[in-house]
Amino acid sequence: MRYFCALFQEVDTMKIEKLPSGSFRVRKTYKGKNYSLTFDRRPTKDMILQTLIDRVQSDPAAEDSKVSFKDAAIAYVASKENVLSPSTLRDYHKYPDRIPAWFCELRMTSITQVDVNNLINELSVGRSPKTVRNYHGFVSAVLSTYRPEFVLNTKLPQKIKREPYIPTSEDIRKLLQATKGTRYEIPIRLGCYGLRRSEICGLTLSDLDKKNNLSINKAMVFNKDNQWIVKPFPKNYDSTRIITIDKDLAKLIRSTGCIYDGHPGQITEEMKRLQKKLGIPAFSLHKCRHYFASKLHDSGIPDQDIMDLGGWKTDHIMKSVYRHALKDEKEQKRKRAAAVISESICN
């Protein structure tokens, strides 16, 4: 690994001096050249790394001032190890090896908007618009970190509008009947309370109190080493919440002694198997969360309350879910509108 990563590894060993003026100084020698960095307050590791990179890049005599995009990308990921979620880090570690070599070899100082346009055009072949947007988000993050003056204005592939299948109450009843008494009954019932799979698999018995309140405060996710781990917080800040479950489900959890003790992927596989056996449409556990949103909206519960109960950060995704789910209601309104017009002009 070349320059940026070497600097990142050395930041931990650099001595931070407090000057009589109250400022802080860090000294670093690189290839015979001394760099003295001064800060108004005690610098963090990220501050030192970024300042060092800026100083070396701005030095015309520095051999590595023209570092490649790949080196910058690897260093960027390394600098976010303790900041980003495990699942995001897992994806970020893959990007430097998946982005075409011609772009990775470009010097950071020479990358133009045209280069980024060509990259996105190439990545768009055989990949979904969402995947391409994720790639662009990573490239943009790397460039904005090391070249903050370079603002991208890239035309991205248009999003594909899909009509997601939302399970019906009959679908849910059949699935719960088929899983009754198995390890999958509790996860599916909790999915109908709006919980994500990661949240369900992260729950323990201690998260359920005597009043049948369930505390959602962690999540089970894949880390960069493709291992399942429990991180001490859910998907986002608003996902940390408390919900109340029905007494029968609470009793079942207490008598079972746990929420779910299996592999997260086994829930998905079992649902696929049972859906095929029962002859009902295929849908994931996450679609039970969509069912939750649509049923509560249909029952007249305010959007803000649904957002709080489901742990949505914004109402954009939540509303897109129940808009698709309420097709029957839309059809009835269309028929009623047609009847009103027909009666007005024909009678």
What's the helical proportion of residues? Answer: 40-55%
Low-confidence stretches: none
What is the tally of beta strands?
Answer: 7
> How many domains comprise the coordinates?
3
**Binned strand content:** 5-15%
- The CATH superfamily of the largest domain is identified as Intergrase catalytic core
Number of helices: 16
Distance between the first and last residues' Cα: 82 Å
Structural class: mainly alpha
Shape: globular
Layout of strands and helices, then pairs:
Blueprint: H1 3-11, E1 16-18, E2 24-30, E3 33-39, H2 45-57, H3 69-79, H4 86-98, H5 101-104, H6 113-123, H7 129-146, H8 169-179, H9 185-191, H10 197-202, E4 213-216, E5 219-222, E6 228-231, E7 241-244, H11 247-256, H12 264-278, H13 286-298, H14 303-310, H15 315-325, H16 327-346
Which key features would you list for this structure?
347 residues; mainly alpha; DNA polymerase, domain 1; hpI Integrase, Chain A; 3-stranded antiparallel β-sheet; two-stranded antiparallel sheet; 16 helices; 7 strands; 52% helix; 10% strand; globular
Explained architecture:
With 347 residues, the protein is mainly α. It folds into three domains: 57 residues; 94 residues, DNA polymerase, domain 1, CATH 1.10.150; 115 residues, Intergrase catalytic core (hpI Integrase, Chain A), CATH 1.10.443.10. Helices cover 52% and strands 10% of the residues. The chain is built from 16 helices and seven strands. The strands form three sheets. It has a three-stranded antiparallel β-sheet, with helices on one face. A two-stranded antiparallel sheet has the order 4-7. Strand 5 and strand 6 form a beta hairpin. Helix 1 runs antiparallel to helix 2, helix 3 runs antiparallel to helix 4 and helix 3 packs across helix 7. The radius of gyration is 26 Å and the shape is globular. The model has no long low-confidence stretch (mean pLDDT 85).
